[in-house]
Amino acid sequence: MKKLALLTVLAFLSGCFIHAPANAATDAADLSNTLIYAGENEDTLNPILNNHGELPGIIFSGLMKYDVKGAPIPDLAESFIYDNSALTYTFKLRQGVKWHDGTNFTAGDVVFTYKLLAEDENLTASIKSNYEDIADITAPDAETVVFKLSQYNAAMLDNFTIGILPEHILKGRNIATTPFNQQPVGTGRYKFVEWDTAGGTITVERNTDYYGKVPNIDRVVYKTVAVESAKALMLQSGEADLAWLNANYAERFRGNTGFKNIDFVTADFRSVAMDFHTDFWQKNGDSIGVLNYAVDKQSIINGVLNKQGGAAFSPIQLNAFGGNKRADLYAYDVEKFAEAMTKLGWAKGSDGIYERAGQKFSFTIQVRDYEEERVDIANIVASQLKSAGVDMRIALVTRFDWKAGYNGFLAGYAVEFDPDGAYSNFVTNASQNTMAYSNPEVDELLKRGRHTADPTERRKIYGDFEATWAKRPGHLLVAYLDGNYVSVAGLSGLNNERVLGHHAVGVMWNIEEWTLTR
After folding, report:
1. Same domain assignment for residues 127 and 219
2. CATH assignment of the domain containing 158
3. Domain check: are 39 and 146 in the same one?
């Protein structure tokens, strides 16, 4: 058995494919219309705690949802009216919608969900800053919900896409610890069946009572897989039907009978995110931007990403409101790097590493050891910086340790929809600003962008944000990734017109249109 397994791995890594049969112990009838998805690790399926996972998006529904262009359109809401003079959104809800347990969905569920997000001071959720402009939530009747805002918010309809939670199950519960997070009940296209933690699988089946188009595929078995190479081997061996792979693994499937490559544009970038809780960056935050001069990003894109991506200079670069070239300040140029370091007061020590005020330019970032692509990016960045005189050390970890004193991590983020998605990451003390980045000019611009109605003016504001952030960034941006998915030949209907998010999440946005033929 060990010899056979080794031959399988070697065959895959050399670009040759051995088509192994599906697990003989599995009933073929059960798999005939079951999609096996090799996905990411999951801790919770609660949409307000896990807002960049695939499964919450098909188990739960929001008042709104995103269309193919990434614009919010009604979902659980049948219609809505916005009254600018009163700063109110009034939603009329769909009638006859049921929770997966058969309970009627009502306006009370909507009020419950948004009072958690807008009013519960004990809730810790990365999206909480998105709801700070909600002043009041009321339900005049079972089919109507009224939101009163404290001020205009241009991204509010986007924020209304978050999945609604069932009040009858969660009222009075601790949202952080409730078993519901692993046994969810939603109103979406698929309903939860089982989470086999020992086997690493989450099973959902189609909701035949769904208010919209009922999916064609009976069930989805979502396999929680951490190691990137394992997902590729699962596809190759017949243990999975679909997976997001890093660019080099995806390339090995191109042109191979029995598989399809489906490539998406994503807003997903990779960067070295600096932790401003640490003394090093509190003292040396002025020297982050110039590090860009010392990193040959194109070489990383060509090698690690197999040319599937582009150089990053802005955290909203691939957003419809982003891409301001005035923010592209740092072309790869080691001579300019040396000049900039001298201006900042750094000088090389006897070991070739820059020093300032008695401190070496030496810092440590953490990288999860199972994310091969991120490890490769980190190693190349570290090597290039070392050649230029900066000592970036890498600590490989299985789980991020935010209390260990590391100076940052190899990060990934995405702002694929409204540019206000950057607010929670970069405004001082915002809910997703875990690295404690703070820049008063950035704060002012992101707040203006959120509260400005005119799209032309917003575009200018976010262009100014990009240019301002670039001068004193919180990340060493490296690259944007393409979303390289691979599926079996019999899976059809995936629509790659929509820009995907972090970890290329969002591929299942139109899963009700998918079909699977074996």
Report:
1. no
2. 3.90.76.10
3. no
CA distance linking residue 370 with residue 285, whole number of Å: 29
pLDDT for 229-266, tens place per residue? 999 999 999 999 999 999 999 999 999 999 999 999 99
CA distance 376 to 37: 25
Token reading at 30: 């059960």
Residue among 209, 207, 235, 236 nearest 223 (CA): 235
424: left (phi over 0), alpha (psi -120 to 50) or beta: alpha
Query: Same domain for 229 and 377?
Result: no
> Based on the structure, what is the number of domains in the chain?
3
- DSSP string for 56-71: HHHH--BSEEE-TTS-
Distance between CA atoms of 227 and 97, rounded to whole angstroms?
A: 39
Sign of CA dihedral 430, 483, 239, 230: negative
Report whether 252 contacts 232 (CB < 8 A). yes
Q: What is the pTM of this model?
A: 0.92
CATH of the domain at 364: 3.10.105.10
Q: What is the DSSP letter of 94?
A: P
* Whether residues 376 and 465 fall in one domain: yes
Structural domain includes residue 142: yes
- Residue 365 pLDDT exceeds 90: yes
CA distance 495 to 292: 35
Beta bridge partners of 486: 243, 261
Q: Which range of residues forms the domain containing residue 96?
A: 61-170
Tell me the pLDDT band of 122, cut-offs 50, 70 and 90. Answer: confident
Same domain? 209 vs 261: yes
Pairing of strands 491-492, 515-516: antiparallel
Angle between helical axes of 228-237 and 372-388 (0-180°, round to 10): 140
Return the H-helix or E-strand segment holding 460. Answer: helix 455-471
Distance from chain centroid for Cα 73? 21
- The arrangement of strands across the sheet holding 362-368 comes to 309-311, 475-481, 268-274, 408-414, 362-368, 391-397
Closest CA to 464 of 450, 477, 478, 445: 445
**Angle subtended by helix axes 440-450 and 455-471, to nearest 10:** 160
